[in-house]
Specification:
Immunoglobulin-like, 10 helices, 27% strand, 3 domains, TIM Barrel, alpha+beta, seven-stranded parallel β-sheet, globular
């Protein structure tokens, strides 16, 4: 359950923008400056700009300062033509037309695109008493909120908003964008929230704010999208295009991902946790003896003196891990790399706490004391990553570990930053800093790795906010260990992919508990045909723990992963060149095919492979193949016609249903087909 009470989104005394009184063109900023009145007669200022690539920039409300910027490169604005009559002001260029209604109850904003032939408009105010109307249009409300109502068309599907674990199409839901420790992956909570919404109607809406927001996506009224923001200003970029084009425009605004290092595509092995140095090394040796092609061994919190799993004193347990330098050397000698768990919660009794507190590197309360970690019942402080000095201090904690030979950090937690009665170093309120701190945490660790490894930098994170795609990769957090959780983990990854992420992962086998051998193998098959794959959980995830037969089948899957590594690397580079994710929901590639709108149980892996995991032990499963001709990867003699549903027998445990497009450009990099 969210730690942010939903009453923060309650609007007291909502006041709709009812009349446009005056407008003037500002040639220096290339925007139309608006003077409006709400229904109570209060003056509201606004700004409207036409984007050079098509679309619009919108802003109204208080002129508040944001001590952060989520935009990497602000888009260019054009000089439009402006015409007006008694009913409307029309602002347009060759790509975009904006119609501003001068009087209610007409729609206040109607924006159309000549490129995508899409129309986007605010919902009209409706007749009769405004206070009782389903449609409020747009405006401000006490205490310090802004909102907008947007008309939705029948059949329009809505995606994005970050990593979400239930339906891929969010139409009909209410979603609050508030980072949360989503243990068990409940319906509402998620580690990564992003105010970026894409529509199959050909538009996308991005809000460049870290303030919590609530998105009612046709839940209260099926034809209306209502967005409420916990700050007294509405600011947005409205973009037009099909889903792939919208995706590229979002990257242009908020940053493109880097390419993960080639070694990171190999299998990662982990558990919570290896109790000492010898246990980790003995398992690494056995994996080599068993011919399991593991490329990374990951060490979770037990390397620390503090072993609770949610605080990090950055101090090796000298008894259990007495010789970390030689441990890393032996892991390296086995042709593996070592990944190390960290988090940004500093326990009060650690050697580094007093220094961090004295230099104000930890989030503080409005009274000036160190804010306590809200997620767990202990006395810890949280690093304030809005403070550049705190970021540099945190990097200095990591540099000795990199000197030791650590190849990557698992940047756990980050989504539980304190927010009640707190003030962040950059001046953000606690509610804004809560979301923003997760992003800056991941960025800080990525930067220190890039300082050491250059283009081969990566992290293994689980929290973030707008722009997190620049710092791959993230995994989907703490799932259960059943088929239902396997499907949930995939939905979260696909939603995250639609929200701008290029690369991602999940815990192979699930996290909390011990999966049945068949679940473990089905999950392993999905993991081997995914962006990145790591076996991890609260109990052993090494295949030997599930018996000799499972070990043999897992080995075959892992070796198949090795054979497709050339394809994965080439497809990753191709994806970045195209401005698309490596793992792609079907709707992203076929936005005009309504059959794909609800499909969250299949995905593209690059442009050429379509993967259909199996979420049960055995039986038959129904799957959809999009337009074209398809060939089975594991049984290349089998061909299937696209744009239709098929019912097939579930594959054996050492395979997965996987299909290759007839016009595949990278087919020569795939086994069985050459």
């Amino acid at each position: 359950m969210s730690t942010l009470p939903m009453q923060y989104f309650d609007m007291e005394w909502p006041r709709s923008l009812a009349v446009l009184e005056h407008w003037v063109w500002d040639p220096a900023e290339q925007v139309l400056r608006l003077e409006m009145r709400d229904e109570e007669g209060y003056r509201v200022n606004g700004v409207l700009g036409i984007l050079e690539q098509g679309g619009a920039y919108l802003r109204w409300g208080d002129d508040i300062a944001r001590p952060y910027d989520l935009i990497i490169k602000k888009p260019l604005l054009t000089t439009p033509t402006i015409t007006a009559d008694d009913n409307q002001v029309i602002v347009q260029d060759s790509r975009t037309q904006v119609c501003l209604g001068l009087k209610s109850p007409e729609p206040f904003l109607t924006i159309t695109s000549s490129l995508s032939h899409a129309t986007w408009q605010t919902a009209p105010l409706g007749s009769g008493n405004l206070a009782d109307s389903l449609y409020r249009g747009q405006g401000l409300a006490s205490p310090g909120l802004a909102w907008i109502d947007i008309a939705l068309s029948p059949g329009e599907a809505l995606y994005g908003l970050g990593e979400r674990f239930n339906s891929l199409n969010h139409r009909g839901r209410v979603i609050a964008l508030w980072n949360e420790d989503a243990f068990g992956l409940p319906d509402q909570d998620t580690y990564i929230n992003i105010p970026w919404l894409l529509s199959t109607a050909g538009w996308g809406l991005f809000l460049p704010t870290a303030a919590p927001s609530e998105w009612n996506l046709g839940s209260s009224h099926g034809s209306t999208l209502r967005i409420k923001i916990t700050e007294p200003v509405f600011e947005a970029y409205l973009l037009f295009g099909d889903l792939p084009d919208l995706y590229r425009q979002y990257w242009a605004l908020t940053g493109s991902p880097s390419m993960p290092p080639a070694w990171s595509y190999q299998l990662w092995m982990s558990r919570w946790g290896y109790k000492d140095q010898e246990e980790l090394l003995s398992i690494a040796r056995r994996l080599r003896e068993q011919d399991i092609p593991v490329g990374v061994m990951h060490l979770d919190p037990l390397w620390l003196t503090e072993k609770n799993g949610h605080t990090c004193p950055f101090e090796w347990d000298a008894t259990a891990f007495g010789d970390p330098e030689n441990m890393v050397k032996e892991v390296t000698s086995l042709d593996m790399r070592l990944s190390l768990w960290i988090n940004p919660f500093i326990p009060r009794d650690s050697p580094i706490y007093d220094h961090a507190a004295a230099h104000e590197f930890l989030v503080r309360t409005v009274e000036g004391s160190v804010a306590r970690l809200p997620r767990f019942d202990d006395d810890s402080g949280v690093v304030d990553f809005t403070n550049p000095d705190a970021r540099e201090w945190f990097k200095n904690l990591l540099r000795p570990l990199l000197d030791l030979g650590v190849a990557a950090f698992k940047t756990d937690f980050g989504e539980s930053a304190p927010w009640q009665r707190t003030l962040y170093a950059n001046g953000c309120s606690g509610m804004v800093g809560h979301n923003l701190n997760a992003l800056y945490y991941q960025q800080t660790v990525f930067e220190v790795c890039a300082e050491r490894f250059g283009d081969d930098a990566m992290i293994w994170g689980r929290s973030g906010y707008t722009g997190i795609q620049q710092f791959p990769i993230q995994w989907g957090g703490d799932t259960g260990v059943t088929y239902e959780y396997m499907a949930t983990a995939l939905r979260g990854a696909l939603s995250y992919a639609l929200s701008g992420a290029a690369f991602m992962a999940f815990d192979l086998g699930g996290f909390a508990g011990t999966p049945e051998p068949d679940v473990y193998l089905r999950w392993a098959a999905m993991g081997m045909f995914f962006s990145h794959t790591r076996a991890h959980g609260t109990t052993p995830r090494e295949p030997e723990a599930f018996g000799a037969q499972t070990l043999s089948l897992f080995r075959q899957l892992a070796h198949y992963r090795q054979t497709i590594l050339p394809y994965l690397l080439a497809a990753s580079r191709q994806s970045l060149d195209l401005g698309l994710p490596l793992v792609r929901p079907l709707v992203l590639m076929h936005p005009s095919d309504p059959n794909t709108y609800e499909i969250d149980f299949e995905y593209y892996l690059g442009a050429d492979l379509l993967v259909v995991p199996t979420f049960f032990k055995e039986g038959v499963q129904r799957l959809y193949l999009p337009h074209g001709h398809w060939r089975s990867l594991f049984h290349p003699e089998q061909y299937y016609q696209g744009k239709r549903w098929h019912t097939l027998q579930s594959p054996p445990f050492n395979e997965i249903l996987c299909f290759v497009k007839e016009d595949a450009t990278l087919a020569h990099l795939l086994p069985n087909l050459t």
